[in-house]
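User:
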Amino acid sequence: MLNEVERWLSTRSWSKTDRPLHKILAAKRATGQSVSVVLPALNEEETVGDIVAVIRHDLMQQVPLVDEIVVVDSGSTDRTSEVAAAAGARVVHRDDILPRIPTVPGKGEVLWRSLLVTGGDIVCFIDADLKEFSSDFVSGIVGPLLTDPGVHLVKGMYDRPLGGAAGQGGRVTELMARPLLNMHWPQLAGFVQPLGGEYAARRSLLEQLPFPVGYGIELGMLVDSLHLVGLDALAQVDIGVRIHRHQDGQALGRMSAAIYRTAQLRLARGHLIRPSLTQFERSGDGFEPRTYSVDTEERPPMAEIAEYTARKVA
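Assistant: Predicted structure:
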């Protein structure tokens, strides 16, 4: 299985610089595909406007890569909707989409409903809390979908600094999601940021997937996509550094529980075990995999050991 992951890393992991913007635009013109960008947002008035403005300026006004930007507000109590609209996004409230089905809180709920209010052949999801946002986040992950018909879903990969320390973000990824994927779905062990909120997919794939309503959406989407279209239809692109708001320990605990529950539901389909863990370190211009054995062996109770029993008798 590790050989398959290594092969995938060499053929389906790219950098945003591998596809210059002019080639992506040429592919878009040639294929006639349209691109929607969706920002799920909850109380993100400090960042959502800048993200929308950058995408609109760089990828709609300067070049015609993005066809629409939609911010789906999932119940903000601040000025998220007003700021997003002023920056040029179309803003839709979660509760106004498919009103016959009552909404529930959660990011996956918003992404699922966004399919009803967007029209792009390719849908690109971008978290609304990013700081120092660059438009090549979008062009980087959309590029492979426009240039390679065999690719159906692309995840962004990046460094996630925490408190000034490089590579220390993504705590739920390292402590929950990566071990789960390595042990149960080892084909997905090559994803650097399996829980990252920046990814794009073909609508033809998204419309066939179930959507966990909460934090399990990213893990569930990866697992379900693997089963539906296979590993080689999945890819990742290095888009540099991701800076965003970090959550406290209790919030991370809730996120971990949702991800674990999502994995539990999918394990009913089949059980794959791989007692190894692949992690990544930045090396030069890319990421290098490092694989470690996971200690899964257990010793039996000492009372079952003959020598221990004999000692007690003596």
